[in-house]
Amino acid sequence: MPKSDTVAEASAGPPRLALRDDWGRFAALIATGWLLTNLGLAVANLPLKFLLKEELLLSTAGVSAFLAIGQCSNYVKPIAGILTDSVPLFGTRRRHYLLLSLTGTGLLWLLLTVVPRSFGWMLGTYWVLYTTVVFTSTTLGGVMVEAGNRFGAAGRMTAQRIATFKIGAMFGDWAGGFLADLRIFAIPAAICAAFHLALVPLFSKTIKEPRTSKVNRQALSDAGAQLRGLLRCKVLLYAAGMVFLIAMEPGFLTPLLFYQSDTLGFSKGYIGFLMTVNAATGLAGAALYYFACRRLPLGLLTGGSILLNALGTLSYFFYRTPQSALIVTAIVGITTALAMLPVYDLAARATPKGSEALGYSLMMSVWNLTNALGDWAGSRVYDHFARNFEVLIWVNVGTTLVALLGLPLLPRVLLRSRDGDPAPSQ
């Protein structure tokens, strides 16, 4: 990828900033984007689920199906990755994708508050809304991977991405639980819209991208070549398989919400508080990984974190009271974060140059599709075998441990590497 094709102009012509200054500017800009988008989505998350549960009267499987279908564009993120890597929009490679998707997300959250409260109308609006969310996430992901590889900081930027997600969830989930009790969906939706729209002038001012040539006939074949190259990248495929096994959590998303609300009798505010605790301990896990990835080899971090995640999942057997739920939530928050970070670190280091957004979006698609399938399967089991969490817990532990079988298949040079080491030949 030519240097003139970068997003921020850190490599474009004199005077060139020092590497540390370049890294700081990239990190701050990307972190701001991740933080505000994740914070907004977290604020609206619980109110939307309770609207579907209490106003549309959907079952556990119904809520899960609504979210799975509405977010289906998450499962084909590589298409968005191909576009943002290869097909300029209005003369820029990433800038206008980002600005237009942020604007669309903000406006569509507002539209979601006024469409008729029916399954069809809300699902159609939500599907279009989430397509804009996908383009925002994919574009930011491409910037993150590009910057991480250029500055030798893929692990730190991965930890930063998870940290901003957890910070957004810490405050957003707590606020979402409080706002869900008000039963006025327009308020959290407007807050989410405001956070996305606030990023438009920020990125419009700070991301100055060189003009690129218009799309030509070669663009789609180049995109196809990128996809074929990624599919031949065994390291990336192994990492995707590990993400699938680790992310498969049948019963731990929508069914847990119904279990907390209907069976255990937790208030919406307390459910939001538990989600905040999960995010806070996940943030601690991201902070731990930020420092560990420069000191310990990637193979040791990956294997150890998978074992920790399996142990954390077993703690769900004690999820019975508000007090035990608090302890289990704190444990699972840190173990889940530690399980995912090494895998995404691995994927970032294995992504070929010039395909940053596509490689990142491929991993996100696996993660999102797996979560949706696991949630739907768990919801079906929960509706059919009411309150039976034990089977779901054992299945989750088993799929997580199977991910260990993928470690010997990865190149030793990657397993022995630490963050900051020169990138291995791809």
Describe the overall structure.
By secondary structure, the chain is an all-alpha fold. It has one domain: Growth Hormone, Chain: A (Up-down Bundle), CATH 1.20.1250.20. The protein is built from 16 helices and no strands. Helix 5 packs across helix 14 and helix 12 packs antiparallel against helix 13. It is globular and about 50 Å long. The N terminus is likely disordered.
List keywords for this structure.
426 residues, Growth Hormone, Chain: A, 0% strand
Strand and helix layout:
Layout lengths: L18 H36 L5 H11 L6 H10 L8 H18 L6 H32 L3 H29 L3 H21 L11 H14 L2 H14 L6 H10 L4 H25 L5 H17 L7 H29 L5 H29 L5 H13 L9 H4 L11
Helix pairs in contact: 1-5, 1-6, 1-7, 2-5, 2-14, 3-5, 3-8, 3-14, 4-5, 4-7, 5-6, 5-14, 6-11, 6-13, 9-13, 9-14, 9-15, 11-13, 12-13, 12-15
Summarize the main sheet.
none
Distance between the termini: 15 Å
Query: How many structural domains does the protein architecture include?
Result: 1
Give the SSE string. HHHHHHHHHHHHHHHH
CATH class: Mainly Alpha
Mean pLDDT: 79
| Shape by Cα distribution | globular
- The name CATH uses for the topology is Growth Hormone, Chain: A
Number of strands: 0
The gyration radius over C-alpha positions equals 21 Å
- List the total number of helices: 16
Structural class: mainly alpha
> Segments where pLDDT lies below 50 for 5+ residues?
1-20
Q: Assess the beta-strand content as a share of residues.
A: under 5%
**CATH-scheme architecture:** Up-down Bundle
- Range of helix content: over 70%
What would you give as the CATH superfamily? MFS general substrate transporter like domains
Quaternary organisation of the protein chains: single chain
